[in-house]
Amino acid sequence: MGENKEVAFLKRNAINKANQMMFLAVAGAALIASASIVGMIYLFRMFTFNAKVLGEQDKSISTIQKNIQNIEDLKSKLSSLETDSNLNERNLKSNAEDGGLRVIADALPDSENAAALAASLEKKIFSEGVTLDSFSIDSADSAGAGASSSGGSSSSSSSNSTSAIEDPNKIPNGVKDIQFSATISAGFQAESANSAQAAKSQDEALNNLINTVRKMERSIRAINITSFKFERSTNRFSLNFSAKSYYYPKYVMKLESKSVKADETAKPTNSAAGNNATKSTGASGGSK
């Protein structure tokens, strides 16, 4: 009887040890399986992140290669413009040694430069046969560019004419304007006994005003008269007008960085550390 109890006790003890071993084996297997799943998820996220980085790098490399090709094409076009016979006509140049590109820059500069515009108009257009009575530029950087002078203008009587000549639909995108206004006048002899001489003097004064407007029309710098008013006084014709000139802001190239995130739902951070990749791109701002 005592031997049977001892055998039963040994069997129960062996069963308990077997259960403990089974529990430890199952727990170890579960731990290994959990670690494997976590590792697989981590490796998959690393794979997708690296694939994103490589994709953005491929885009950057493609952009750089296209830019290199475009630069070569641009060099060829610039060389042809520099030697273009139509752009190298002497009457278009400020200086004889200037090339075609300088003419284009004079026609449509890359900055407002109101002071240079005022000086050019006063020197080259409002210079022969007319008097510049007043001149002002409505521009942000024209604080010292406006020039005004008092001229002989007595009581005005006679014809006034106002006209609007503007078609904004013809202005290309990106082109900005500079608005300015001026008053020019031309004197003539008052009516006297010699009516023929007085009429000739009036015709000359009127032609001087017309020639000034034509010089503005033929100017290499684009000028658009938006409104004008013509007046006649006792011995003077006056033309008051508002106009626009144009410029095209320069094209600015700069490098930008793009952050590639493994988790697109993650909140952005200001830290430079982490899973980031840098991509080179071009940013536009104006003239090509």
Features:
about 290 residues; 6 strands; single chain; 6-stranded antiparallel beta sheet; 4 helices; alpha+beta; about 45% helix; about 15% strand; 2 domains
What report would you give on this structure?
This protein has a six-stranded antiparallel β-sheet with strand order 2-1-4-6-5-3. It has four helices and six strands. The protein is rod-shaped and about 160 Å long. It folds into two domains: 1-80; 112-247, no CATH class. With 288 residues, the protein is of the alpha+beta class. A hairpin with a 3-residue loop joins strand 5 (223-232) and strand 6 (236-247). The N and C termini lie far apart (108 Å). The protein has helices at 2-82, 100-107, 114-124, 195-218; strands spanning 131-138, 147-148, 162-164, 176-187, 223-232, 236-247.
Tell me the count of domains: 2
How confident is the prediction overall: mean pLDDT? Answer: 76
Class based on secondary structure composition and strand pairing: alpha+beta
Q: Could you say which overall geometry the principal axes of the C-alpha atoms support? A: rod-shaped
**How much strand?**
15-25%
Q: Uncertain segments of ≥5 residues (pLDDT<50)?
A: 140-164, 270-288
Give the tally of β-strands. 6
Order of helices and strands: HHHEEEEHEE
Helix coverage percent? 40-55%
Amino-to-carboxy terminus distance:
108 Å
Radius of gyration from CA coordinates: 41 Å
Number of helices: 4
